[in-house]
Amino acid sequence: MEQQEWWKETVVYQIYPRSFQDSNGDGIGDLRGIISRLDYLQHLGIGAIWLSPVCKSPQDDYGYDISDYQDIDPMFGSLEDMEALIHEAGKRDIRIIMDLVLNHTSDEHPWFQEAKKGKDNPYHDYYVWRDGIEGTPPNDLTSTFGGSAWEWVPEIGQYYLHLFSVKQPDLNWANPKVRQDIYSMINWWIEKGVGGFRLDVIDLIGKEADFKITGNGPLLHEYIRELSKETFQKGKELLTVGETWGATPEIAKLYSNPDGSEFSMVFQFEHIGLDEQEGRGKWDLKPLDLMELKDVLSKWQTELKGEAWNSLFWNNHDLPRIVSRWGNDGEFRVESAKMLATLLHGMRGTPYIYQGEELGMTNVQYEIKEYRDIELLRFYKERMEKGYPEHEVMESIYAKGRDNARTPMQWDDSHQAGFTTGEAWIKVNPNYTEIHDAENVQNPDSIFHYYRQLIQLRKDHEVIVYGDYELIFPEHPDVFAYTRTLHENQIMVVCNFRGETVQLPLQEHLSSSAKLLLANYTDMLPDNELRAYEARMYLMQNN
Ligand code: GLC
Ligand code: CA
Fold this sequence. Notes:
Keywords: Glycosidase, Hydrolase. The chain has 17 helices and 20 strands. An eight-stranded parallel β-sheet has the order 11-10-9-5-2-1-13-12. It has a five-stranded antiparallel β-sheet with strand order 14-15-16-20-18. The protein has four domains: about 10-100 and about 310-460, Alpha-Beta Barrel (TIM Barrel); about 110-160, Oligo-1,6-glucosidase, Domain 2 (Oligo-1,6-glucosidase, domain 2, Alpha-Beta Complex), CATH 3.90.400.10; about 175-285, no CATH class; about 465-540, Golgi alpha-mannosidase II (Immunoglobulin-like). The longest helix has 16 residues, at about 175-190. It is globular and about 75 Å long. Helix 11 runs parallel beside helix 16. It is α/β, with parallel strands linked by helices and about 550 residues long.
């Protein structure tokens, strides 16, 4: 069996602080709000919280533009609140995973304020600058949020690189001083007792702007190994997870080498691109093909075996709600949310739950003026200027807009879903009167309790953590099914992705010892039929 680690055995819960719980009525979630909900998270059973950025930030990209890595944004609270959160979470056996945004800072960071003063300023070389003439950028690199990735600074007659918004200048990792400053900052947070880090768009730090190489640059792994050695490897058992959009299994084996030289694991996004048109990006939609989902997830399950560790996720603050995306958020919302959870939590890897996923929260369809996200608003503007029909643009936004994930957490059916006593910074999903935590916690058949059970099963059965994966019924058009095997123990997971009953000769794989661990329907049909979005998890002991 492979090396045992706490971070392989735990389940992580992601909090997007601005939308989780407001404590002072200003309409923005904050650290005190999170502290007040720790009992809820302990009840759910998770072992770590990945906290989206709470450091000082002008909030141009909602915290992913940091102006002081060693202070908390007043909007979220203070450093004392952060220390209290680490402490209070620790009392409940929950570790805090910080979000490290190391590819870029805010343009309001003192480093950048200095850097743009002149070419001979000691901080100039902290960022990526190129000479040029106004109006003709050095090359045609584009920003993820639209437009050129180069911004002209007339005072010094140079362009700086920003792969995201103009307010997010890219750091120059080729400069050893940048790297050293970053390492001391990380070590400062480790001293404060955080349990690990999620590394934002870390695959971009080895970029070579002149050659238009952004992801997976030539020096990427050299930088990460140095970073890891100077910080993460200093003796604490940290969970580190890199956000790596362009990873293949081969690349993931470098990032997540079991020798601990880089990270614990990575977020890979291959499955996330399955419902977009080839080569066109996330906004150009196509339906999910279940066969492709089986191929991609199975590939990652088998290829990393013994050589790297998977993270398992459907959602995060950048992605639409999974129940609306690949489930059914109408008639079968509860069944399909549970089915998708079963599929993911039965796999090999560390599961991540994104806030509200455990309640079956859904996507929204707002008017354009009700949206807040920089990426979404840029997309709308660009497409409208190009003359796309508005209804088509809105369809893309409904399906993929990041604000789907960022509407306030639905705690109860009172004012603003119990998120704030004031007015939330972004409109609450109008379905909060039906979909909310208070209902979920009371109802034993709720999605929330189902997630609790999944988390508990992972603690009770080593095979769910360490077992080997095998896809079964590979050709079945509607069912995603697999086994996990560790010594004599075997788990079998079967999931129907169709909104109607399908046939499946389950007996082929069920041994006489089979015991049902969990299912999303309470009454059982014969073993060869699965109802709409039905999911089952069996345990077998084979001698
Ligand atoms: C990551 C974050 C996203 C952010 C971007 C730039 O993809 O998850 O929210 O906008 O990096 O930091
Ligand atoms: Ca607040």
